[in-house]
Amino acid sequence: MILGALLLVSSATAVPLAHSFSNTLSQAGLFGVNGNRKRLTFDPHGNFKVVSFSDMHFGEGEDVTWGPEQDVNTSIAHAHILDKEKPNYVVFNGDLITGENVYADNATKYLDQVFAPTVARKIPFSSTHGNHDNTLAINHQEEIEYEQAHYSALSYTRSDVGPKPYGSGNYWVPVYASKNDPVPAVVMWFFDSRSFVSGNPAGPGPVPPEADVYWVDEKTVPQYIKQQRALMLRTWKKVLPALVFVHIPVNLPSLEPTVEQETQHRLSQVQKADVLAPLPSAGDHDDEPDPATQGFLNNTYTGRDLPFWNALVDMDGGHGTVLAVTSGHDHGESWCARATASSGIPICFNGHSGYGGYVTAHSAVRNGRVFGLNLRDLAREVPVVRTWNSYENGTVNEEVVLGPDYMPEFN
C-alpha cells in the first residue's frame, strides 16, 4: 500500500477556535465544558478507545536522507495502528518533533505530518508537549496556537493555565456516555512538563532561564487541579474517573520528603526500578534503573514535581478514580504498575511511537498505548480500565486491567 493511500492527508482550511479560554484562574469555570465544541461520547456499545502516541520526533534529520525516510515510517506505523485499533480518540503525548533540528520557518510543517494519519481518519485528538518541543525554533505555546488555528475541527488541545510560552499546555477534556448526558463518564487530563532542548541545525544555543525547568508548573497547576475538581464535585456531585497524560514522568519514589542530595536521588531511581517495575508489570524496561523523570535541575533532584503529583493524589482522594497517569520520554519503558510509592495510582509508560529519537533493545517495533474504556467498568465501586500496547506489525501485547485488583501486593 502506498503512503498516500495510508495517510490521505487532509487539506482542511484553517478555522480559528470559536471560544477563547482564559488563562486566569479568577475567571475560571469548568474549563473543559465548552458548548462550542462537539461533545465526545462513548459508542452505542458503551466503549471509548484512546490510542496514545509518544516520542515521534518528526524532523530529526531533514537535511539527510534518513530523516524524511524515518518520518514516513512513523506515519506508516501510526496508520497501521489506527486502522487496527479504530480509536475514538488519539493523544500525542509529547516530543512530537525534534525541535532542535528544525528551523523556525518550517517547524509547523512537521506538526502537519504528526497529525496527518489521525486527521485523515477524522479522529479527535489532543496533544501534550515534551522537552524536544520547546526549542529555539518553536515552543509549546506556538504549537498549541498552530494546532488550534489549523485543526480546530478535531483538536481539543487548549492552554488553560501555566507559564507561557514554555509550560501552558494544561487542560482537561470530558467524555460523555451519550450526547444528552449532563455529567461526563470520564475526564482526560493533559499536563505540560516543560523543559527545553538547546540548539538548532546550525549548532548549540542558549537555554532561556525560564525554560530550564523539568516539571509541571508548581505555582499554577496544583491550584488549577484543586479548583477544577472542586467545581466538578459541586456541579456533578461526584468524583469522575480520570485518565492523565504528561510527557515527563514524575519521580514517584521520592513522594515523601524532598530529596536533594545526589546520593539520595540516585537511590530514589533504583527504588523506582525495584518497586514499580517488578513482574507482572509486562512491557519494556530498557531505561532502568535510571529513567529520566521530572524534578531535576543541574543533575540534582529538587522535589519540585511533588506539588503536581500531590494534587493528583488529592484528586483521586483514595477512591481509585485516577485510572492511570501515562508518560512518554523514556523510549525504552512501556509497562504499567501501581505501588505504595505512587499512592496506589497506576502509572504507565507509553513506549516508543516514532522512528525519530533513540532506540533501545526492545523498542525497535513502534507502538501506541491503548486504553479501552467501558461504561460498565467505570460504574464499578472502584473503576477499572483495560490497557495494552498495539504495535505497528499488528501484534497486541502487555494487556492488563488497571484497578484495585492489579498488583494488590503493592497497595
TrEMBL record:
Pfam families registered for this protein in UniProt: Metallophos
A molecular function (GO) term: hydrolase activity, acting on ester bonds
Region described as Disordered: spans on this chain: 278-297
Any one of the GO CC terms: cytoplasm
UniProt signal peptide: 1-20
Alphabetically ordered keywords of this record: Signal
Domain Calcineurin-like phosphoesterase: 49-150
Name of this protein: Metallo-dependent phosphatase-like protein
